[in-house]
Each structure stands twice: as structure tokens, then as C-alpha cells.
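Good morning,

Attaching, inline, the C-alpha cells for the sequence recovery test we're adding to the shared suite. The designed sequence is right after.
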């Protein structure tokens, strides 16, 4: 039996709106301000604990707030959820985003995939 896992997004209004148009129904729109760190940590903690979530797309700008949680998930023995950092509309912190995603896939599944 195949288990259907949900995709979720944690991001700003632009990222969430775009991915909702693409069909993502689980989302956390972070408003910004002084509670951003706590809001992002709370949202990601809830999604990590939910066994129905398979992929979490996280706005790259928010990754700094949850580095410890992401590291825990990636070191864990479970395959889910996969947490993917998504660049903001202002760009990315990675010099070569293609290389970043190739390395991420290689680390996650153990081999390279050419896109």
C-alpha cells in the first residue's frame, strides 16, 4: 500500500501564495517582525512531528532560525520529512544553486541525478 505524504511550505506571503497556486495545501505564512524566529521554529517543529508530511519547503531566509532542527532531521534515520530550502525572490545565499541542489540530492538519496 502506498502512503500519500503531504507537501508543506513555510515562507513569506509571496512564496506561500505561489505554492498554494501550485496545489500545496499545508502552509505557514510568516508575517515577519520580532516573532519571526519563534513562528518559524513552531511551524517546523509541528511539521516534523506530523507523520503525514513528507516534504517541507522552507524559505531560505528562515533557515538560520531552525538550523538545529534541520540538522536533527537530516541526521535521523527516517527518510521524512525532507526539508528543502527555497530561495527568496531576492536571490539565494548559495553561489551555485544547481550545485547546492545536486549535493542535497546526493546526500539525501546516495547518488547523483542529472536534471
Amino acid at each position: 500500500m502506498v502512503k500519500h505524504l503531504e507537501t508543506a511550505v513555510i515562507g513569506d506571503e509571496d512564496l506561500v501564495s505561489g505554492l498554494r497556486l501550485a496545489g500545496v495545501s499545508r502552509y505557514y505564512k510568516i508575517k515577519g517582525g520580532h516573532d519571526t524566529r519563534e513562528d518559524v521554529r513552531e511551524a517546523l517543529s509541528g511539521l516534523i512531528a506530523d507523520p503525514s508530511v513528507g516534504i517541507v519547503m522552507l524559505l531560505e531566509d528562515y533557515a538560520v532560525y531552525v538550523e538545529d532542527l534541520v540538522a536533527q532531521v537530516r541526521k535521523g534515520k527516517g527518510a521524512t520529512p525532507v526539508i528543502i530550502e527555497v530561495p527568496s525572490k531576492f536571490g539565494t545565499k548559495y553561489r551555485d544553486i544547481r550545485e547546492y541542489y545536486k549535493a542535497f540530492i546526493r546526500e539525501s538519496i546516495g547518488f547523483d541525478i542529472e536534471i
